[in-house]
């Protein structure tokens, strides 16, 4: 086969579009409601010019540490609002670009000085092509691409690969490639500000420098000095985390995780990494929320055997590195093995992260596995004297590629709705309360009340201490008008875990039954936990409005409006206050602003009897 570079790029792009062609309308899933749909930082670009505006909010840490990732969400929102198609186009584009960078990375690697006499150099284009198409079509990548919020993993990988390939290209250049070095350095910084596991990038660049480049003119000191700018970027992640006054594990995981000790997490990760390897070679029973056991002893047979298995793989990498002095191609396999362990080290180490296992975490590490496996396969076929055997091996790989592409397409079909995703998850994790909770919420959105309550009750039965399940039951009972049961479940949830949102809903429930003092008490507790919540301020303003305390009502509506200028409710309610106070100028001014923010709410005011009577009298 003879493929030009343009045809190769075309094949990679087309394959990526085909595999993900059924994802453009997949809805926001799971925690995307909090991270994207309800996140004020995503809805207002001024937060990115002045991040300190978010200080004190639950989003501040993520905004600071994952600035570039959240900026892309904000730009998506600016252009597309909450239309998911634009978000998916961005994610798929990044995935395709990553596959192209994998292709160029492999091509550049076989041009490195160490591989000048490589047996595989003549096959580099095919190893590069197969690595790229395997990367783009493998079903294990779907979570990092189709799950919109996990673009943090794919976007970080883009900057990671761009930085490395630009560095390699600069090192191979015979001129003065200062722009390539600048591009590599800037990309490294952007990677660090997208997701924390970019912390390993300088380690990989350093490893690459000493594995694939020889220098007769540059001393060791010169080579290390050249790497200093990239090594200094490793300070970005820890300094960012310290700057937002959050523990290291919170910065990496996004939220605190106290349910597992560091050592238990590490022991469990030995099993998890073996699962990741299994998924790369046998991608079956994929799951967005694994019901994974926690291991408490290194000497548990499953943990110990997993550790020995991983140690053997790593030792194989060391052995191949040693043998590569005589057989250069073995160094590529060794590098792929080291890549896998290094890039996985941040999320599968001693720092506990809320999700014990998540498929998106092997998006970047998978590149090392693909490179090592394909290099080994081509080296094996190269040494086969039988041409028919060579053709058979390559043919089997192509059949495997087709099977993986179909599997990835089918896996993507599970993401087509919230119900289909969580029904699939419940089948695979039937004893996990959280998945029943999420499926119940998905049924509720579609008006399937009976099924929703059934799964919420299952969640509470499986985990009586599940505050979220009690909270959701409270929401559902409130929606069907059973305020007594609503308040009961909110109180049960708060007994388990105080939470600002639950206090806010409890205050709203008390307001509905005219228990205004209890409502004020609940709203104030919510604001102590979440001082910059516009919804709580708006609802507290409503209580004061009902009590005819218009001054306090106005203060709270103004505070809500200042936190989220695009939230229409406090503006609408302020007009009601101005009508009650007889403030004509206030009504006119606020209505003009409301028309800009929400024409629908403005029309609602224009049809309001109190407004019409007020304007008639004025």
How would you sum up the major sheet? none
What sort of overall outline do the alpha carbons produce when their principal axes are compared? elongated
Question: Number of DSSP strands?
Answer: 0
Structural class: mainly alpha
Cα-atom Rg, whole angstroms?
A: 28 Å
The residue-averaged pLDDT reads 89
Classify the beta-strand content into a percent band. Answer: under 5%
**Tally of DSSP helical segments:** 33
Q: Tell me the span between the first and last alpha carbons.
A: 83 Å
Query: What are the segments in which pLDDT stays under 50 over at least 5 consecutive residues?
Result: 247-257
Helix content: over 70%
Number of domains: 2
Topology:
Blueprint: H1 5-19, H2 32-37, H3 40-43, H4 46-49, H5 60-65, H6 67-80, H7 84-109, H8 124-137, H9 142-146, H10 151-172, H11 178-192, H12 201-212, H13 220-232, H14 236-243, H15 248-253, H16 262-281, H17 301-323, H18 329-344, H19 366-383, H20 387-414, H21 418-428, H22 433-445, H23 449-462, H24 467-479, H25 483-496, H26 500-512, H27 516-529, H28 534-546, H29 550-563, H30 568-581, H31 584-597, H32 599-606, H33 609-617
Helix pairs in contact: 1-7, 1-8, 6-7, 7-8, 7-10, 8-19, 10-11, 10-12, 12-13, 12-18, 16-17, 17-18, 18-19, 21-22, 22-23, 22-24, 23-24, 24-25, 25-26, 26-27, 26-28, 27-28, 28-29, 28-30, 29-30, 30-31, 31-32
């Amino acid at each position: 086969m003879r493929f030009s570079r343009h045809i190769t790029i075309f094949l990679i792009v087309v394959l990526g579009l085909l595999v993900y062609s059924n994802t453009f309308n997949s809805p926001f899933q799971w925690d995307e409601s909090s991270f994207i749909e309800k996140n004020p930082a995503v809805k207002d670009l001024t937060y990115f010019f002045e991040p300190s505006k978010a200080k004190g909010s639950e989003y501040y840490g993520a905004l600071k540490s994952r600035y570039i990732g959240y900026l892309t969400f904000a730009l998506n929102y600016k252009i597309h609002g909450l239309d998911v198609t634009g978000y998916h186009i961005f994610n798929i584009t990044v995935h395709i670009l990553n596959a192209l960078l994998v292709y160029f990375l492999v091509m550049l690697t076989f041009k490195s000085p160490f591989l000048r006499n490589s047996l595989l150099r003549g096959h580099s284009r095919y190893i590069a092509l197969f690595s790229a198409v395997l990367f783009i079509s493998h079903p294990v990548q779907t979570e990092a691409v189709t799950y919109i919020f996990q673009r943090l993993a794919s976007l970080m990988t883009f900057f990671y690969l761009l930085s490395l390939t630009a560095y390699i290209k600069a090192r191979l250049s015979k001129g003065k490639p200062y722009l390539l070095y600048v591009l590599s350095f800037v990309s490294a910084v952007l990677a660090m500000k997208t997701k924390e596991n970019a912390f390993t990038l300088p380690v990989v660049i350093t490893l690459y420098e000493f594995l694939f480049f020889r220098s007769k003119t540059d001393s060791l000191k010169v080579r290390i000095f050249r790497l200093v700018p990239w090594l200094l970027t490793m300070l970005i992640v820890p300094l960012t985390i310290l700057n937002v006054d959050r523990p290291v594990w919170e910065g990496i995981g996004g939220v605190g995780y106290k349910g597992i000790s560091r050592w238990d997490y590490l022991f469990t990760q030995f099993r998890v990494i073996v699962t990741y390897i299994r998924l790369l070679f046998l991608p079956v029973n994929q799951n967005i929320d694994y019901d994974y056991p926690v291991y408490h002893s290194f000497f548990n047979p499953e943990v110990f055997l997993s550790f020995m298995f991983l140690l053997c793989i790593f030792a194989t990498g060391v052995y191949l590195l040693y043998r590569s002095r005589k057989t250069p191609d073995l160094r590529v396999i060794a590098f792929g093995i080291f890549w896998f362990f290094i890039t996985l080290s941040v999320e599968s180490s001693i720092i506990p992260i809320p999700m014990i296992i998540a498929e998106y975490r092997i998006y970047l590490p998978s590149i090392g596995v693909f490179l090592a496996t394909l290099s080994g396969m081509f080296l094996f076929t190269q040494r086969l004297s039988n041409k028919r055997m060579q053709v058979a091996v390559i043919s089997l790989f192509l059949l495997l590629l087709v099977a993986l592409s179909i599997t990835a397409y089918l896996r993507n079909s599970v993401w087509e709705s919230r119900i289909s995703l969580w029904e699939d998850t419940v089948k695979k994790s039937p004893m996990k309360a959280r998945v029943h909770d999420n499926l119940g919420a998905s049924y509720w959105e579609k008006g399937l009340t009976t099924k929703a309550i059934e799964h919420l009750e299952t969640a509470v039965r499986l985990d009586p201490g599940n505050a979220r399940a009690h909270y959701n039951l409270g929401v559902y009972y409130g929606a069907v008008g059973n305020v007594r049961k609503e308040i009961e479940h909110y109180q049960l949830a708060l007994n388990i875990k105080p939470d600002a949102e639950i206090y806010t809903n409890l205050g709203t429930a008390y307001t509905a039954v005219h228990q205004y003092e209890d409502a004020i008490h609940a709203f104030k507790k919510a604001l102590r936990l979440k001082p910059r919540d516009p919804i709580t301020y708006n609802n507290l303003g409503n209580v004061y409005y009902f009590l005819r305390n218009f001054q306090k009502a106005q203060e709270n509506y103004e505070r809500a409006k200042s936190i989220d200028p695009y939230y229409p409710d406090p503006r609408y309610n302020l007009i009601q206050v101005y009508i009650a106070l007889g403030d004509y100028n206030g009504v006119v001014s606020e209505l003009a602003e409301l028309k800009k923010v929400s024409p629908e709410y403005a029309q609602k005011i224009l049809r309001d009897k109190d407004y019409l009577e007020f304007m008639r009298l004025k």
